[in-house]
Design goal:
By secondary structure, this protein is of the alpha+beta class. The chain has four helices and 18 strands. The protein has a single domain, classed as 3-Layer(bba) Sandwich (YerB-like fold).
């Protein structure tokens, strides 16, 4: 027997010792045995692996292998978004809801006589808002705003005052007047007020004495001269329910001078003037009266009759009283400059809102004027 041949079970490892001289054949036989052993082991592992793969394939059948899915991640785009409420269009001079897009035109403000010589006033029934101001001789004059409706004829048209700057500038409106003193016209130009004082839209009517017979065909004038953007809201409009209870105010007395007193009575859901120069359907239906106590100074010139012309300063701050639905709401008004919008606040500092509708603004002198109200 070849001394290098080991019988019995195949060992896990074959230890080779140097061959003696003359034992080359035995060594070759032993090497062949070791090579065969490695082949048998490799074949066994291949068989095991093939069996495992076959089992995995059978267990899957015809079903698709499930793919890993991503868990939904919270992203801003995946979150439900609230649908914004549609914007409510409102007329800037009344606060009323506008059913159609606002017309692309400026407001027109016409200076109208406010004495017995004006009777009857024409065109007030179509107005959006009226401002009453003190002029010379202790009398008053009206600045009448038109935007949502523009009547064909308005009058009697009278001259402007420097007080009009603070009235028309916040609306960037077209001021329509019969003219004005040189000093007042220079002030208007300096303040860049849009102004019309004549043209083919003006005409004289029969049956009235001059200068109370001058009228303006406003619809024609506005069409030709008032192209532009609609004004910003003239007053801080808001829901009447935010006003609270207020005080009883069925009667209002606003005194502008010793000779001019404006009295109001709340009746039939509207305020009625004691001295009314308009008639019938052409009168201005007043839903709200807003009284502002204002400073009045000398405008620096005189009228043709020699009377000193006053100037109302509609900027700064002062006492305010809002009258609506037979109730009074005291507060304060604020205006940074003549062209700035008007702000209102209650006596406790909360915003004071003006209910939508037709508003009559009274610029009552803080000195020399007076305001009273009651049941």
């Amino acid at each position: 027997m070849d001394p290098l041949l080991v019988r019995g079970d195949v060992p896990s490892a074959v230890e080779l010792t140097p061959a003696r001289p003359g034992s080359v054949g035995a060594f070759a036989r032993l090497a062949g045995m070791a090579h065969g052993e490695r082949r048998r082991r490799r074949s066994a592992w291949v068989a095991v692996l093939a069996t495992a793969l076959l089992l995995v394939g059978c267990s899957g059948g015809d079903q698709e292998t499930a793919k890993p899915t991503k868990s939904p991640s919270a992203s801003p785009s995946a979150q439900p978004t609230a649908t914004p409420a549609p914007e409510v269009r409102r007329w800037p001079l009344t606060g009323r809801r506008a059913d159609h897009p606002l017309p692309k035109r400026r407001a027109g403000v016409v200076k109208i006589e406010n004495t017995g010589n004006s009777e009857p006033q024409v065109g007030l029934g179509a107005a959006d808002l009226v401002v009453q101001q003190l002029v010379e001789g202790g009398l008053t004059r009206l600045a009448v705003f038109y935007h949502s409706r523009v009547p064909s004829d308005v009058g009697p048209v009278r001259s402007l005052r420097t007080s009009d700057i603070g009235i028309v500038k916040p609306a960037d409106a077209l001021l329509v007047a019969s003219g004005g003193a040189r000093r007042a016209l220079r002030r208007m130009e300096s303040a860049r007020v849009r102004l019309v004082t004549g043209g083919d839209a003006y005409h004289r009517v029969d049956g009235r004495p001059a200068p109370y017979n001058l009228f303006v065909r406003l619809s024609r004038l506005v069409k030709a001269r008032a192209k532009g953007a609609a004004p910003e809201p003239y007053l801080p409009w808001g829901d009447a329910r935010t006003l609270g209870t207020g005080k009883p105010a069925g009667r209002i007395v606003a005194q502008y001078s010793r000779g001019t007193v404006n009295s109001w009575t709340y009746r039939g859901h509207t305020y009625r003037r004691s001295i009314d120069h308009a008639t019938g359907r052409d009168d201005f239906r007043v839903d709200t009266v807003l009284s502002l106590r204002v400073a009045v100074t000398d405008a620096g010139y005189r009228d043709p009759a020699g009377n000193a012309v006053p100037e109302t300063i509609l900027s700064g701050k002062g006492a305010a009283t809002l009258f609506h639905h037979g109730r009074a709401y005291d507060g304060r008004w604020y205006k940074r400059s003549p062209g700035a919008p008007l702000r209102l606040a209650t006596t406790t500092g909360r915003p004071l809102r003006v209910p939508p509708g037709n508003t009559w603004i009274e610029l009552v002198p803080a000195s020399g004027g007076d305001l009273r109200y009651g049941r």
